[in-house]
Amino acid sequence: MTVTVRFAPSPTGFLHIGNARPALINWLFALRREGRFILRYDDTDKERSTDEFASAIAEDLGWLGIAPHESFRQSDRLPLYDAAAEKLKAAGLLYPCYETSDELERRRARARALGRPPVYDRAALKLRDEERARLEAEGRRPHWRFLLPNHDGDPFVTRRVERSWDDLCRGAQSIDLASLSDPVLVREDGSYLYTLPSIVDDIAAGVTHVIRGEDHVANTGVQIAIFEALDAVPPVFGHHNLLTTVSGEGLSKRKGALSLRSLREEGFEPMAVASLAVLTGTSHAVEPAESLHQLSEVFDLADVSRSSAKFDPQELRPLNAKLVHSLPYADVAERLSGLGIAETHPGGEAFWLAVRENCETVADAARWWRAVTSPQPLPVAEDDAAFLREAAELLPPEPYDETTWGAWTGALKERTGRKGRGLFLPLRKALTGEEHGPDMKALLPLIGQRNSAARLS
Prior knowledge:
Its EC number is 6.1.1.17. By secondary structure, this protein is mainly α. It folds into five domains: about 5-80 and about 195-245, 3-Layer(aba) Sandwich (Rossmann fold); about 90-185, Glutamyl-tRNA Synthetase, domain 3 (Alpha-Beta Complex); about 255-325, Orthogonal Bundle (Glutamyl-tRNA Synthetase, domain 2), CATH 1.10.1160.10; about 325-375, no CATH class; about 380-455, Orthogonal Bundle (Arc Repressor Mutant, subunit A), CATH 1.10.10.350. It contains 18 helices and twelve strands.
């Protein structure tokens, strides 16, 4: 059996880090098992779904390194859902209801006041044909509920009926269907709620594992029952904890909270984002993985905590820095060029290797490029000015290499008696316009003899 998973976003906004977590977890699960990953756009909300957001989702997933094996839109598959609905109707498992939302709320309130659970009483099943005709003549249109299999033939006498599953994250789980209302699958306007299209698509696409947020746990018993009603074997389920903000609030794409787009624009590496999004809220230490393949070998659904996973964007910076410090030149050359950093001397690989350990993001290299090519002069104390003139006199001729800085400063120490901060800081400030930064033994060959002489005078 080929493992097949799916990620099903609605193209109604940009992906945020909370969306990235299930997408990455599904991708890693499939990657480790050489399985398939399906991208399904849940775009039946015609008013809010847009092609722009659908394209942005694909782009953001690609940035993370997720390359779906298949993708499709629910809006193109309505005949499949219609056929499933007709099958359920023919079996007497999908029945029309005419109550308004206000009427239903009043019934729920009354049940709660009497100390009873606010479960739908299936009153619509008692309607005769002429009563339905009269309601429709009044302008009412039915919504359609799925009749849960929690009875022995008389739907008004329910009994405890459990649907159980071995959850990949939470272990043995069970839901009593008698404690639930028959779910609405079709709205009054004929459009579908999430449940039926999702199940139909999972069956048609051969999805073997449904891995999603824990907010769907309560829905799973109902969905298993619908899979069975459609003569399908339910998939394996896994419900992981949800990412929240540091303060514990849920993430919302409508508010643009921690969108992948904004994190990318801030210069974060995709593997820093992926590592934090996946490993937060697990028993693993949060360390940056170099690739999704490596992360797939580390992550296991059984290691996911039951408590919420608080995502702190401030943790991205040290993670990102660790990745940046090890990035080879080939991986950043195009981005450095976009920052105006030349490929030839004093740029290129030698420049990147000299400065990368002082960069939290690749874009930080621009600061050190300015330090090498066109630094802003810093104020110089009077006694330092004389020292810098002596330094210029002792400046060795080219060619320069990593030994030049040590030989030059050694000669300066011997002549002037300066050492430590008093020796090195004035030189760094004059040569780079910075008080700290990359190792000067690597920067001096990039700056060169002529530029150094001009900056010291």
